Amino acid sequence: MRDVTVAAAYHSARDVFPHRRNGRVKFLPPGVIYFRPDERRYGRVRPTADRPASQQDTLALACREAADRGTRVSAWAVALHNDRRGFEDPTLSVANAFGDLLLTDLCLSNPDVRRYVVALLGDLARYPLAAIRVESLHFPTLLHGYHHERYLEPLDEATTFLLGLCFCAHCRAGAAGHDLDADGIRAAVRGWLDAQLRSRPRPRQRQLRTASAALSAWT
């Protein structure tokens, strides 16, 4: 039996469609779903359906057409990397050690975000799918956050990781619940990043050791 994976929840993109009837290059809208949602499942954070999907359930149509051709359908769902929700409600986003909001990444420590992800995947489970393939079901690094990203200086792995580490109110409350000094860790991360971003690039192994040493007193 053949298999096909279709986008069910996705971010903005510019794609080439070799077999598209009207043109070949298409821009996809940010942070939309490509099926008709069951609105009763969702809380404060609600999905936005792509306009054609709001008029006709394209995922249901794909499942029916595929079944007629002996093909199984899997759904690809991007969970926390969402370039719509964070811009509409910044309180849902990851906040790094400097307080910078990473608006394309939702924070999993936020209970409204968790409810949204559970509702989204439960919504997809209504369909006759072979599998639901979930992308970005984790805390992010700085990289792959937005289109036309610019890093005008070389950033090593530790720097990109720590620049994306979340210190929002929900994450800090969770840390406090495990007897961790979240404010101390945030200050250590901020201080280390300040020094790192102002210095010359270091060899990778030495750089990772210095990052680990800077945080060891707080963990």
Brief description of this entry?
The chain is of the alpha/beta class and 219 residues long. The protein has helices spanning 51-55, 58-68, 85-88, 111-124, 157-163, 169-177, 182-198, 204-216; strands at 2-10, 13-16, 25-28, 32-33, 71-78, 93-95, 101-106, 131-135.
Describe this structure in words.
By secondary structure, the protein is of the alpha/beta class. It has helices at 51-55, 58-68, 85-88, 111-124, 157-163, 169-177, 182-198, 204-216, and strands at 2-10, 13-16, 25-28, 32-33, 71-78, 93-95, 101-106, 131-135. The strands form 3 sheets. A 4-stranded mixed β-sheet has the order 4-1-5-8. Strands 2-3 form a two-stranded antiparallel sheet. It is globular, with a radius of gyration of 20 Å. The mean pLDDT is 90.
What's the structural domain tally? 2
Q: Structural class of the secondary elements?
A: alpha/beta
Query: Helicity range of the residues?
Result: 25-40%
Low-confidence sequence ranges = none
Question: Biggest β-sheet, characterized?
Answer: 4 strands, mixed
Gyration radius over CA: 20 Å
Number of helices: 8
Distance from first to last alpha carbon: 51 Å
Q: Looking at the structure, what is the overall shape?
A: globular
Spatial order of the strands forming the largest sheet: 4-1-5-8
Q: SSE order, as H and E?
A: EEEEHHEHEEHEHHHH
Q: What is the average of the pLDDT values? A: 90
Tell me the total number of β-strands: 8
Hey, roughly how much beta strand do the residues contain?
15-25%
